[in-house]
Design brief:
Order of helices and strands: EHEHHEHHEHEEEHEEEHEH
Number of helices: 9
Shape: globular
Strand content: 15-25%
Largest sheet: 9 strands, parallel
Number of strands: 11
Distance between the termini: 19 Å
Oligomer: single chain
Helix content: 25-40%
Structural class: alpha/beta
């Protein structure tokens, strides 16, 4: 946990437009995670949504980052991109067994992202939630639902999320629906409205407001704020500007 109780970061660490601006000119690509993890306090891993990884990958990533840094992680799409979520048990097990808990204390929430076309069907979604393990070995797992269809914005879905102890993504996107505030045991915000003409992606006044909101969320629970998409080239600047407002300072390189 960061000193502020809030983790702020971006999605992934390999992105060509970040080279020679966020990343110093000439920085070896192999050093990008080490650098990013000392200038941000969290990263959301996207590659795990698309492909399988092995325990040695998770151990390597964790070893490259400083104490207190946290990875959130997208779970496999093979569990969430299906007609019947109740049949996802094998995919969920394979993902958990692939070794994300090898990250130890650096493993943050696991994000289960659903297609924008996936509608809320209470019985099937509850069957999916029942498949999610609360622990892997001695490691407590924290699950976050990234639901993207308006049918989920209902008290019936909120009741199921509360029953199974999962959180729900909050977003400022105009493409995806969101509850007015983060819902669940952790606050998890994915901010998608960065503008290319703003040096820090979001205007200073907007970042001031996000800082206040994040502090309010963190008074009650662990809080994660990621700058995702929009003008993605501005994401590290936005995250850094928010961290500065929260009184966080980069770790030594």
């Amino acid at each position: 946990m960061s000193k502020t109780g809030i983790h702020v970061g971006v999605g992934g660490w390999t992105f060509e437009p970040w080279r020679d601006n966020f990343y110093p000119k000439g920085l070896a690509h192999a050093r990008e995670l080490a650098y990013a993890s000392r200038h941000l306090s969290a990263i959301e891993i996207n590659g795990t949504y698309y492909s399988g990884f092995k325990p040695e990958h998770f151990r390597k990533w964790a070893a490259e980052t400083p104490e207190g840094f946290v990875f959130s992680m997208k779970a496999t799409r093979f569990a969430t991109n299906r007609k019947l979520l109740a049949t996802a048990g094998d995919s969920i097990k394979r993902f958990i067994d692939s070794g994300p808990t090898e990250m130890g204390a650096r493993l943050g929430p696991i994000v289960w992202q659903f297609m924008p076309t996936k509608k809320f069907e209470a019985e099937d979604f509850e069957a999916f939630l029942a498949l999610l393990p609360a622990k892997e070995g001695s490691h407590v797992l924290r699950h976050v639902m990234d639901v993207r269809h308006a049918s989920f914005v209902t008290p019936e879905y909120q009741a199921l999320a509360k029953k199974y102890g999962v959180s729900t993504v909050f977003t400022d996107s105009d493409k995806y629906p969101s509850f007015e505030e983060p819902d669940g045991p952790v606050a998890y915000a994915r901010l998608m409205m960065a503008q290319a003409d703003e040096p820090t992606g979001y205007a200073p006044k907007a970042l001031d407001e996000w800082g206040k909101r994040a502090k309010g969320w963190a008074a009650k629970r662990d809080t994660f704020v990621y700058f995702i998409n929009g003008a993605k080239e501005k994401a590290p600047a936005a995250a850094g500007a928010l961290l500065e407002r929260l009184g966080w300072t980069p770790a030594p390189d």
